[in-house]
Amino acid sequence: MVPRARRRDRVTERNVSPQRLVHYRDNWYLDGYCHLRNELRSFSVDRVRSAQELDEAADAIPDAELDEHFASSYGIFAGRANKTAVLRFSAARARWVADERWHPRQYGQYLTDGRYELRIPYRDERELVMDILRHGAQVEVLAPESLRGSVRQQLERALAPYASP
What we know:
Layout: E1 2-3, E2 16-24, E3 27-34, E4 39-44, E5 48-50, H1 63-71, E6 83-89, H2 91-97, E7 107-110, E8 116-122, H3 126-133, E9 139-143, H4 145-159
Antiparallel strand pairs: 1-5, 2-3, 3-4, 6-8, 6-9, 7-8
């Protein structure tokens, strides 16, 4: 398989033991064991330049192991969650967010003032930051500080083109 990575925009030839196809946010991904990196990875199908069937059999990974790797963390970025995002939504936004499912292992609760606090396990913050930003001023990241800083940095970058000359 020859995918072109979005992040670095480079092509890498890999031998992959395919496990399953996943449809996520209007895109198809191949979950598989990457023999180059010796780990489970997701590959965006639309980024695969070419693929060739090999004579050797693919390694089979048990479903439970695939689920733990690909579904324990937030979004398409796989791996075991090692951080928990703590988000506080305004009372006005709480009515929508409380009904959303961000993650199977999320925990949410209404606060006494009508706001809503949501806890989400994650490993890679990239997709989570994008989803937080869509709520604008109606959400505050309480923890961890690294996620709070990333959201603040993205908001500052978004504001920069609008700064007065």
